[in-house]
Each structure stands twice: as C-alpha cells, then as structure tokens.
Design a protein that fits this description.
Domain NADPH-dependent FMN reductase-like: 37-141
Oligomer: single chain
Number of strands: 6
GO molecular function: oxidoreductase activity
Protein name: NADPH-dependent FMN reductase-like domain-containing protein
CATH superfamily: Flavodoxin domain
CATH class: Alpha Beta
Order of helices and strands: HEHEHEHEHEEH
Pfam family, one: FMN_red
CATH topology: Rossmann fold
Strand content: 15-25%
Length: 166
C-alpha cells in the first residue's frame, strides 16, 4: 500500500545517510559493515546509504548528505588520523552550509574512549552539527555484541531520517 501511495504522489525523495568509518582492522571492518546493514534495513524505502573511508571522503560528500554517521577506532586516546584528516579537509568548505546536520558517532575503544569522544565532539560542535544521540563507545576487549550495537545505531538513524524525526 505504501509503495502505491508513494508512487501515486510522485514518490518521496530519498535522503542520504553518509557513513564515514575508518576500518583498519577486521573488527572495525565488522563495525563498518554493521553500520551499512543497519542503514539498508529492508523496511527503509527512502534512505540511501553511502559508505566511505575518511581518506576517500570529502566536503562534497558532506554537502550531498542529509545525515552523517562517523566511526573511528581510538588511537592513543584520540580519533584516527584518517578521520582527523577528513575533518581538516572538510571543515571550512561545509561550515556555513551544513549547520544542523544530524550526526552520530561510534568509537571502538580499547581503553575508555573519552579522549576520542571529546576530540570529535569539539569539531562537531564547531561545525554546529546536531547530535541525534550520545556517542556509542565500544570499550574493552572485542565483543560480538559491538556489531549489533552499531547496526542498531545506524538503523535507528536511518529510520529517524525516513520518518522526519531528524
């Protein structure tokens, strides 16, 4: 029924969720893939998902999206250098154009992740993006549940986009 109604009304425009995830290890690749799965839930009809590593993403990707999910490992108490590089190249080109952009973050932290969280929050605050939920910090030894948590985060974000909550 929904497809018929949407088609009759010239269909709703798709919204784009951009996932920028640094995935240098098998576990972080599992998290990135889980984020993609969540954003591609079969019940989602009007959300497209683009996944890029930070070194391949740039301001044009941010300008084209409707929301962004960031993923990074904790590196020496900080975000990955690749994610920092993405922010360095994208900050000023998007600063005045994407204020209020809905965003979320997951951190794969071998320790506590608070330094990484603080660093990303500082940049996001400067960009004036809007957190849709508190950062998800996946602390300690690897647990398979981490992938489920990231998938849930991404799915919630995508459904929130589709329904107009964010």
């Amino acid at each position: 029924m929904r497809n018929t109604v949407a088609f009759a009304m010239n269909s709703e425009p798709s919204k784009q969720l951009l996932i920028i995830a640094h995935a240098p290890s098998e576990n972080t690749r599992l998290l990135r893939d889980a984020a993609y799965r969540g954003a591609c839930h079969p019940d989602l009809e009007f959300v497209d998902c683009v996944v890029k590593p930070p070194l391949k993403a740039g301001p044009e990707d941010v300008l084209a999206c409707d929301a962004i999910l960031l993923g990074t490992p904790e590196n020496l108490g900080y975000m990955s250098g690749a994610l920092k590089d993405f922010f360095d190249r994208s900050y000023y080109p998007v600063l005045d154009k994407k204020q209020g952009l809905p965003c979320a973050l997951y951190i794969r932290a071998g320790h506590d992740g608070t330094g990484t969280q603080r660093a990303v929050e500082t940049i996001v605050s400067g960009l004036r993006w809007r957190w849709v939920q508190a950062p998800l910090i996946l602390r300690g030894q690897w647990q398979p549940e981490f992938a489920d948590q990231v998938e849930q985060l991404s799915m919630t974000m995508a459904f929130s986009m589709e329904t107009g909550i964010v």
